[in-house]
Amino acid sequence: MADMEPFTLVEEKSDHPIRLFDDFADLTSAKTADHDVQYLVALRHANPEMIVTSVPSPNCNLLTFANAGMAIAELDTQSDSVSKWRGYVGPRKRGQQGGLTDVIFFAKYHYTWSGEHFVLYTVQGMQYIIKEPAEGEHVLGHSSATDTLLATIGKWQVADENVVWVYDNYWMKSRELWNSVQKAEWANVILDEGMKKALTSVSEKFFESKEVYEDLGVPWKRGIIFYGPPGNGKTISIKALMHGLLKQKNPIPTLYVKSAPNPYHIRNVFSQARQQSPCLLVLEDIETIVTPLTRSYFFNEVDGLENNDGILMVASTNYLDRLDPGLAKRPSRFDRKYLFPAPNQHERELYCEFWRKKLAKRSSVDFPAKLCPPIARLADGFHSLHRPRSNTGFRKIRCKAELSASASGTATLFLLSLAVGLFHYEIASLDYVFPSCIHSLYYMNHHQRLNLSSRATGCANIKATPRIDTLLNFPAGLEAPHPLLVLFCEF
C-alpha cells in the first residue's frame, strides 16, 4: 500500500469573528412558549447603538409606577402596533359602577422619569427598556439611568408608606385599609375607658421596652388575644391600636393576616414579620389560621430558633373555647386575654350620643339628647350585629327618625336602623296613612305585631299597648306626635 501523503489543515480566515450567540439565537428561535431571546435580538438589531434591558413585570413594574403618578408613560401607536383584550370589570362593591378596561399584551411606550427619556416595550409579562448609553457604557452592558429607575421602582414597591401589608394567601399592600385606619381614633371607639388605657399601654410599652427585655434576658416578643361575641369592638380596637402606633415618632407598621391555610403560608407570614420588625402582627380570627394542619408549624415559628424580636402579636377570635390550648393557655405565646362583652348602659348611651351628633346636620332627623338614656335602656343585651344574648330577646330596634302628619293624615315614615355598637345606619322611606289621633310612642314585645297598612287601605292597624313612655320612664314632654316610633322585631 502506498504511503498516504501528509496533509495540512487549512483554516479559512475571516474578517468576522465567530459569534456563538448567533447560533444560540438561531437554535432557540423556533416557535416556543418563551420568546424573550428573539425579542431581545430583534430590539438590539433595530437599535444597535442603544442599551436594551430586559425586566420581568412582576419584579419592577414600570407601568404601575407610572399609573401611581411617579412617571409618564405615553402609548405609541404610530411606530408600532398594540395587542390587548378589552372587557368589563365589575364594581368592587355592590351599588358601585363597573367599567371597561384593557389587558395589554404588547405595546410600545415613550417613558419619562426624572428628566430621563426611555423607550419601553411590554410583551407578555416582560419589559424591554431602551436607553442610549452614557459615556463609558457599552451597548451590551448596563445603563446607569435604567438601573437608577429600576432601583427607585423597587424601593417604591416594598415601601410601607400609606399602606398596610395584608396577607390573604399572599402579601399585598392595602391603601384602602390604611385609609380606614386613619379614621380609627380611640376617641371614636365606644369602649370601657379602662380597657382603652390598658390596650394603649400594652402596645406602646412593648415597643418602648426593648432594653428591659434585653436586661432580663428574655425574647422581645409578646402576644395578646381579643375575644368575645362578634360586633363588640375587637376589630375597631385593633384599628385604633394600628392608628396610634403609626402616629408615634418612630411609626410601627402593621402586618394584617386574614388567611394563611397552609404551613408555607405561616412561613411567609413570619418571614415578612421578621423583616418588618418591630411591628404589630394581627391575626384575624386566629381559629381559622391555627388549624390542625398548621398548628405545629405555627408553634415552631413562634417558639423556634429564629429571632422574633420586636413582634407584638394581636389575635382576635369570637370563639375562645375553640382555640387550641397551646394558644389560649400558653403564656409564652399569648400571655394576656381581653374580653369584649356586650356594651353596658353607659356605653350604649355613648353610642346613641355618637349617632345623635353624627345626624345633627340632617334636617329630616329629630334626635333630642334626652332620648339617648331610654333608647340605651331598650337596647340592653344588644350589640352591633343586633344579636341579643338570648334567643328569647329581640333582634332589632328600629327608631323612627321623623313622623310628620299632614291634615289629610298622610305621613312619611323614615326608619333609622339604630344599631347599638355599630358605626353605620340605614335610612328607608315608606309612605303610610295614619289617623291623626294615633300617638307616636308605642311599646312592642315579641308576642305582638305592628301592622302598618299601605296608602291604599286608608288607615293603620296598630296593635300595641301600653304606651312605651309610661313603661320605660321616657322624659316628660314627649307628647304625640313626637318624631319617635320604636319597633321591636321578633328574633
UniProtKB/TrEMBL annotation:
UniProt superkingdom: Eukaryota
Official protein name in the record: Uncharacterized protein
Native organism: Zalaria obscura
